[in-house]
Fold these 4 entries.
Entry 1:
Amino acid sequence: MTQARPLIGVGRIWHKRLRPMQHSFQYRSYFWLLPMRSLRAEPSSLVRRNRWGLMAFHDRDHGDGREDALAWLDELLLGAGVTDATGEVWLHSCPRVLGYVFNPVSFWYAHRADGSLAAVLVEVNNTFGQRHAYLLNGPELGWGQEMQASKVFHVSPFCAVEGRYRFRFSFSGDGPQARGRTLVRIDHDDATGPLLQTSVGGQLQPLTRSHKLRAFFSAPLMSFGVIARIHWQALRLVLKRLPFYRQPPAPERFLT
């Protein structure tokens, strides 16, 4: 397997609520795409792994909190019957910035040895300290194809735990190694129809020192801003008198 290099993306997060009243926002953001198998074979000095840095990656921010998140993913995929994801694994997530991170959602793109997409794991964190994952795989999986999963995990107190998610993952080429642009769409439908529309994406470029510093200084408090904006938008919804749903018990199984 050819060694892949880390990428950094700069773009926007967009969110829109359709009912019972419209509410939308968008923010400039950045993220990185890390080739986890390549980084295991050949660590990059630009990815400060499991140590402090202006921008860093900590394995324990993902999965079950162990010091090797890729080992956790491989075990999870094998346990779910995905036995052919032996190629590169790309992780789309926000880095720790100044030692702090809150990732509302991360995406693991697991490939076969021939470079085709074997599975996508959508890893979701809520502000109550809980984590859940949705595994997307099967013959209908592919770039630009819609995949669905039942919603079972509490994320927002303004949405009931019901309905389904519709996922679509797009790159300007054939997967992360094509670089270019990436876009992830996540729409939430309830029994009435479309309720929320969300997207995250941006322009991908090699993770170099200059690109890294440019992204950092464009938003030096990005990680703190993520959690602050979540609470600010929640306050706006409270003021709009949106119905409030109490937090239900977490799902018995970590994986859907």
Entry 2:
Amino acid sequence: MKRLLLIAALLLLAPVALAATDAAGWLARVGPALRGLDYQGTLVVVAGGRVDTLRVFHRVDDGRERERLVALSGPAREVIRDGSRVMCIGTGVAPVAYDMGQAGRWSEALAISEAAGLDGYQARLGQPGRVAGHAVQRIEVLATDPWRYGYRLWLEKRSGLPLRVDLLDGQGRSIEQVAFTDIRLDQAPADADLMPSAPAELERVSPLPPHTGSQVGWTVPAPPAGFRLRATRPLPDGGVHLLYSDGLASVSVYVERVGGGLRGDARRQRGAVHARSFWLDGWQVLAIGKVPAATVDRFARTVRAVTASG
């Protein structure tokens, strides 16, 4: 009887284990696809009640990535990336070059591809389908607690390239969508398609320095599970910018001096991005991130000055 029960248990558990392994395997293909493929297409972003359309060009020359995203709706703007150099061009202002990390890519898919091994997320295999005329496999990366959003990805079956990414709330509803409406794979863009429309040179500006463990004057003693301090930047008059992340979602906490006597608080939301701020005793605390409202509220409420005794 014990042997029969053991066999039954293994049969019941096997599909779950295989599905989880398969989902992780699919996600592992995303990074090489995003970094290594030539492609061009039209991307639609639906977020915060707005619909934006972009043209995407991506080419790899002997390991050197070149990419250009051009807005086809709204104000004229574009992002150009050449290796580690990035430029953002907007309307009516001089071109601005800055380090965007992974933000130069068309979505957060590269970071999402690593979420299967992160605390707070669980990856599972979904149903096959079609996006922009291509056969795809759906993968769900679900949040296991209310502190972060989940994701749903549609990966092109042959390459693993994400053709659609949805951001999900706690009930599994889509609150942001990024999807190709047409895409040509393995078709390298021409040099002209990758060139910025402005004559300025692409530049690299240093990102936030990583946190070294030294005291920075302010801290969040008990951030939500999975979030840890990744980078810090001092601000004038004893203020600081703290960047917390779980490896996928991130929250910036700003502590700055303000005029004495100010007291109060405020909440703001733009699409999936929430912000929470407080004014008290000559200081302003602002927490902002693409996370649920409760997450930024916890960061803003619990930030504390580091005392001399630690």
Entry 3:
Amino acid sequence: MASSRSFGILELERDLSPDAPRPNPSPGSLRHPNTFEHPAIFETVPGAWVENVVRGDPSLELPYVKAAQRLVERGAIAISSNCGFSIRHQTAIAAAVNVPVIMSSLLLIPALLRQLPAFGKISVLTYDSAHCSEDLLGVDDATQRARIIVGGIEGGEFWHNELKRPVPPTSVASIEADVAACVERLRRTNPEIAVILLECAGFPIVAPAIRRLTRLPVYDIVSLCRATAAALG
């Protein structure tokens, strides 16, 4: 039985055999035991693989809802996910459970825009920019959308690995290199970038390095989950 004060995380399929050891989680990741004050509990969403979640498969909505409900039954005080593209199911899950639901760091975009001067821009670092479409950003006004600069790491080692079955581990150094290169590229053409938002739930492990490199605020799903947990006490 899970703790009565657990943080619930919905996970994608990884194609790991039942007896296969799970790779040790990196500090700062959703699975690391020291990431949250409350213990985290996990539910895999059946059929939710990286490729169809990123692409946006509407048939996954019910499996997401059912998995979230199982987490609440196990004692989850809030629900999040390990893929920012799961924001597509935010409304349905929030309507189906009685705890806060924060499926993606993309939920922060409207608030972050309001923190900046009118010329300030947000850089959204995503796993796949081809599928991080405007409807996921939560901003209807075209002028405000123009302040959101989206860049992805598609084609890199982490991008390729996450599409494999089973999913092999990717080194922290490799993820950091991909994210840092994307940030540098975006800042060269958009010097007004004042905030970095990491969409991918695999990126928080490199957030401290990106803060050091850019000297900019860096937000991600872990920082949003921690704020939510703190608000719940």
Entry 4:
Amino acid sequence: MKPATMRETLFEHFAGRSTALQRTMIADWLQEPANQTQYVAWLDEWEQQHLQYLADEDTAFHQLTSRIEAWKQQQQPVYEPDQLPTIRPLISRPWWLAAAVVTLCLLAGGYAGREKLLYQTVETAFGETRQVILPDGSQVTLNAHSSLRIPRFGFVNKTRAVWLTGEAAFSVKHTLTHQRFVVHTNRGVEVEVLGTEFDVYDRPGGTKVVLSKGAIQLNYTNTAKPIRQLRLKPGDAVQVDSAGHLTQTHTAEPEISTAWLNHRFVFKSTSVREIAELLRDTYNLRVVLKNSDLASRTVTGSFEANNADEFLQVVAELLEINYKQKDNTVTFFE
């Protein structure tokens, strides 16, 4: 069957208007793993068009599996001792098989299957930036080599929650219901806002949050200490290093934290070691220093670079050094 025809058939099925023959055809079609992925994608599309969002994801998910199980139990006939079961023809294969196959696929990995159904992840490659418009109208711009996990069916709970790895600039819209917006990171740093603009950096070397506009509450959970709550105002910056140590500073130029949105790099006594980390995180380049004393040398200045080649040329000129590149390895030398 052509994809367009199958899509129409599934849309009728989602609306509860499929026939027994169509349900059997869908069950057969779902035997292919690739079709199971397409099923979820079309289900997502249909749900978005018909706004059938669920207010409680956990309860709804359990209700779905309970309904399917209850229906299966109802379909098992009870026989009298002297009564033999009747063999059903193939055409009457249970209609719930299509839904059951998808549900079992999603549950095969336990919690991971549920996560795949309820959430989607937006990613950027090395050297790429990407803007994402969230269901509430908030804007997120992902920096290179970053990912953002968001609810697949929109924000339906009291909290608008997203999960970030890498770096992103957020412009969060305030809602009429004062729905809070929370950004989760991998180092126990949680940013809570109602409507504001800020940058979140979450890389292997540490996590940093810089507030440009509005106000945010930063919650930091550390296994060694109780949760810390900090109220940030514009210009405030909080950094957590790889060892879990938190420091708070203030800058008169918070916009520098999002200079990367315009492919600009701003350095203020930035060490070559820090530049090496930036090259690794942004362009997937490994830096080798021919002279160990190069690591402590610093750069001050700002410039625009649209790719790794432009970046390397400018940095080499500022440091007055040479470099050579082979594949993903860059060597700095005098």
